[in-house]
Amino acid sequence: MRRIIISTAAVLMMAIVPSVVMASAAAYPKGDGDLANGKKIFTEGKGTVPACNSCHGPEGLGDDNMGTPRIAGQFYTFLHKQLEDFASDKRTDTTMFIMNANAKGLTEQDRKDVATYLASLRKKGDTKTSNLEELKAAGITVGETHKGKSLVYWGGNDKGIPACYSCHGFNGMGAPPIFPMIGQQRYVYLVNQLKKWRDGSRANDPKGAMQAVARKMSDEDINNAAAYLTTTSFYSDGNLHTAYDPAH
């Protein structure tokens, strides 16, 4: 009888797990724009708007030397919001100083198409992130990952810094539709954005949440959190699947 009960439980678990994984993938905001047009703009540009890959790299994974972010695999809702914010000047590009003009040079449908294409680029096992040793060798101040992990998961209770995990999820993989993927983001970009949230030069966050958090963070806190986040994995130990993975 015990053997039968165990076998039944195993069958039930096998039936439940795939449904959970499928539900996670279904929750991933992919967008409903024209993939072909989005890809064309990403690789070729449109009119006076240059190709996105000229700054964000051929795979959309960003570039620490240019300070540009990884945009491949980001959630559609977040990507689309940022393009709309650039187009309406709710956000000002202080990195390459071209995103406001670029967004305005695209139609509303173009912006949806680009966001849809970029969201489709999320790849299983993608680990092309910042090389912290190379950044150190180039003279860039790099934080300590173990201290960053503490901030990401438990926050800085002595300063009232909330854990990044509480909004951005496991290893910063994001919590759509509002909170973006910040895990495996470029180190330089993460540091720069946190400092911009802190000084108010970026202020397009919902209800000022990121500004409130960043104002409590020192340069050391920012460097440490960024160092950990750029090196994270979307996989927990023993888990072959990730939430919101289109491959599943």
Q: What can you see in these coordinates?
A:
The protein folds into two domains: 1-29 and 130-248, Cytochrome c-like domain (Cytochrome Bc1 Complex, Chain D, domain 2, Orthogonal Bundle), CATH 1.10.760; 35-119, Cytochrome c-like domain (Cytochrome Bc1 Complex, Chain D, domain 2). With 248 residues, the protein is mostly helical. It starts with a helix and ends in an 18-residue tail after the last helix. The chain has helices at residues 2-26, 35-44, 53-56, 76-87, 99-104, 108-119, 132-137, 145-154, 165-168, 187-199, 209-214, 219-230. The radius of gyration is 19 Å and the shape is globular. Mean pLDDT is 87; it is low at 1-23.
Features:
single chain, 248 residues, mainly alpha, Cytochrome Bc1 Complex, Chain D, domain 2, 2 domains
